[in-house]
Specification:
By secondary structure, the protein is an alpha/beta fold. Helix content is 35%, strand content 15%. The strands form 3 sheets. Strands 1-2-6-3-7-12-8-11 form an 8-stranded mixed β-sheet, sandwiched between helices. Strands 4-5 form a two-stranded antiparallel ribbon. The protein has a two-stranded parallel ribbon with strand order 9-10. It starts with 5 loop residues before the first helix and ends with a helix. It binds zinc ion.
């Protein structure tokens, strides 16, 4: 199988850290249910103090295999180009050596390619379309009820039965045996994988951008995921119980989620530039759009990450948060996946440059 297995992804991360002085290995604190320890990389020059950080994660959903390759290659490309003093070329999109140097000097680029190693192993060896982790705690012995959807386990509108309109097609479940594999877990951050991601955000206190790499649908999504965006009424927001039971419907007058206009604009620009650079590689059209336009969600990484500065009373840095949905199926033939890696990596390099602009 040309896709990397769990062990190969991990050794890719550790060997990059060993090979390049501009890459630090980060061991995540929480082992998975099957006892695997996860690692991330911090990429960037060392100048004694933390720089603004972009945190990129992947391998959250087990069956979305190529996300790990996308992030490992992204890390390797930046490190090789910086060490060699060269630029980067992805088909028709290219970057100069000065742009590469700017990214490594001005940013902490934090790359966590495999959040859910247990799930990836299970998907690659037993059930190819497996999505969640492998935690059996809520399964009651039913093999079909093993696993929690990590990207429903973050603390954002977790009590969806209270928060959402009864008719909202919110894509989440409180049933461990849910056939769509979107079981949210017993409580927010019940899973080690989710807590590892939170730990990265806590550790890199100057994180200002976050990207969660998923498949599929050729989109670059930004907040919010629970309802349509509005910038007119700050009181209409996810913390206000007046709007319980009203969220999650499309084109309705009941509710839309507040986002500051500047954040909505900045998010749209970052997503648009990502898609433009990606298209330059070989012409693939990705769509930049708010996550809700795909389908309503709760407990996702992007909404949680953006909401952190609101929940902290603005004590924490504001993080603009995104979800890439690459490709048109979970397991493209490897020859096509290699091209998708180049597409998305060109978009991610441009994302970093746009963030710095
Ligand atoms: Zn996914």
């Amino acid at each position: 199988m040309p896709y990397l297995n769990t062990t190969a992804v991990e050794s890719g991360v550790t060997s990059l850290a060993a090979a390049f002085p501009t890459a630090d290995l980060i061991e995540l604190p929480e082992p998975t249910f099957e006892g695997r320890t996860c690692h991330a990389l911090r990429i960037g020059t060392h100048d004694g103090q933390p720089k603004p950080a972009v945190v990129l994660i992947g391998g959250v959903h087990a069956r979305e295999w190529g996300s790990c390759e996308i992030l490992l290659n992204f890390a390797a490309d930046l490190l090789h180009a910086h060490a060699g003093g060269t630029g980067l070329a992805y088909g028709g999109t290219s970057f100069t050596s000065a742009q590469v140097r700017t990214i490594l000097e001005k940013l902490d680029v934090v790359v966590f390619p495999l959040v859910n190693p247990d799930g990836r192993r299970y998907s690659q060896t037993v059930v190819p379309l497996w999505r969640p982790n492998r935690n059996p705690a809520q399964s009651g012995g039913n093999p079909a009820a093993v696993g929690v959807d990590i990207n429903r386990n973050y603390d954002h509108l977790f009590d969806f039965r209270t928060a959402f309109h009864p008719l909202a097609p919110v894509r989440v479940s409180d049933d461990p045996a849910d056939p769509d594999q979107v079981y949210q877990g017993p409580e927010p951050f019940s899973e080690p994988e989710t807590r590892n991601v939170r730990r990265l955000l806590d550790h890199f206190v100057r994180t200002r951008w976050f990207v969660d790499v998923h498949s599929y649908s050729q989109k670059m999504l930004y907040v919010w995921g629970d309802d349509q965006n509005q910038s007119a009424d700050p009181a209409m927001n996810f913390r206000n119980p007046l709007f319980d039971g009203k969220r999650g419907l499309k084109d309705d007058q009941l509710y839309a989620e507040f986002v500051e206009e500047r954040d909505a604009d900045d998010s749209a620009v970052l997503a648009e530039r990502f898609c433009e650079a990606l298209k330059g590689v070989r012409g693939k059209e990705y769509t930049p759009q708010p996550a809700f336009d795909l389908y309503p969600t709760c407990g996702t990484s992007d909404d949680y990450t953006y909401a952190r500065h609101i929940l902290s009373g603005q004590d924490e840095e504001k993080i603009l948060a995104f979800t890439v949905e690459w490709g048109t199926d979970f397991h493209p033939p490897w020859a096509e996946m290699k091209k998708i890696v180049l597409d998305v990596d060109a978009g991610l390099v441009q994302f970093c440059l746009t963030a710095l602009a």
